[in-house]
Write a structure and sequence with these properties.
The protein has 3 helices and 13 strands; from the N terminus they run βαββββββααββββββ. The protein is mainly beta. The protein starts with 16 loop residues before the first strand and ends in a 5-residue tail after the last strand.
């Protein structure tokens, strides 16, 4: 289930603003506090779901990411992840970190790529184990799943969560729910009329800030037609049993072409 019940954006946009300002790449401290709290979770399931509409044609997008951070029997960090990118229910890409290697699979071109971040023997983990794992995952997620991996990276990379704004140059507004002051939004808006917006739905529980979900909308033009990307990214505290942190066996991808490795 979600970390907390999600409050719709519509319920919040009718109230007055607490503050509005343009922030640099550092972003908003409330969002960073939420990521700091999210970092306490050793496992996460992230689901990004929405649509891409060009003219009157809409395509559904779903990006699921499973994340696990544990230690092995020797106390070394052990990180696994699986990212699945779908369009209209068709799986287009898979990025899986098995604890030592990130495998990137393109199901449209039948290509795969690998990047080593750990080791398969019993020695100590490399010094940059987590940093390298996240960097290779981000490089492999070149679709809308890149937002999933961005959230994971800003939450878990380094010694503490470090949030950087997802929309540089945007006006940032905090909005409080008039019916429940523990619920509030941090809204990033760019352009007039608005062409890009990200809304971080947050809540305060026991003096801790929690992330409920993120709404994102981008408006542009493609081939003379309006193009609208709209999605919601929601963190869940329980990983579904469908998570698979194993690479495909070569027998599952016969004839696929390997491309240059990332390390």
């Amino acid at each position: 289930m979600p970390l907390r019940t999600i409050l719709s954006l519509t319920a919040l946009t009718v109230v007055g603003c607490v503050s509005a300002q343009v922030l640099g790449p550092i972003g908003d401290p409330d969002v960073e506090n939420a990521l700091t709290n999210l970092r306490q979770q050793d496992s996460l399931f992230l689901r990004l779901q929405g649509t891409v509409t060009v003219g009157n044609a809409a395509k559904a997008i779903t990006c699921d990411q499973y994340w696990s951070r544990t230690t092995d029997t020797k106390g070394n960090p052990f990180v696994q992840s699986e990212l699945l990118e779908y369009q209209d229910s068709r799986l287009n890409a898979r990025v899986v970190a098995d604890g030592a290697t990130v495998w990137t699979y393109n199901l449209l071109t039948h290509e795969y790529q690998s990047g080593l971040y750990g080791r398969y023997d019993t020695g100590p983990a490399p010094a940059n184990y987590l940093k390298d794992a996240l960097a290779i995952m981000r490089a492999g997620a070149d679709g809308y799943g890149s937002f999933n991996t961005r959230l994971i990276s800003q939450t878990y990379n380094g010694t503490q969560a470090t949030y950087q704004t997802w929309i540089p140059g945007a006006t940032v507004t905090e909005v409080i729910d008039p019916a429940n002051s523990a619920l509030f939004d941090v809204v990033y808006t760019l352009g007039n009329p608005v062409r890009r917006q990200a809304v971080f739905h947050l809540t305060t529980v026991n003096n801790l800030t929690e992330l409920l979900s993120i709404d994102y909308r981008d408006v542009s033009t493609l081939g003379g037609q309006p193009r609208v990307v709209s999605w919601t990214l929601t963190p869940y505290s329980v990983i579904p049993s469908s998570a698979n942190f194993q690479a495909y066996a070569y027998s599952q991808i016969p004839g696929w072409r390997p491309v240059t490795s990332r390390n």
